[in-house]
Amino acid sequence: YYILGNAQPKALIGWSNNVRYKNFDLSIFMRAVLGNKIMNVTRADLFRPSTAQFTNIPVEVENESAADFNSYKYSSRFLENGSYLRLDNATLGYTFKKGLIPGVNSLRLYTTANNLFVITGYKGIDPEINQGGIAPGVDTNNFYPKTRTFLFGLNVSFN
Question: Where are the beta strands (DSSP E) in 23-148?
Answer without folding.
Answer: 24-34, 37-40, 79-81, 84-95, 104-120, 138-139
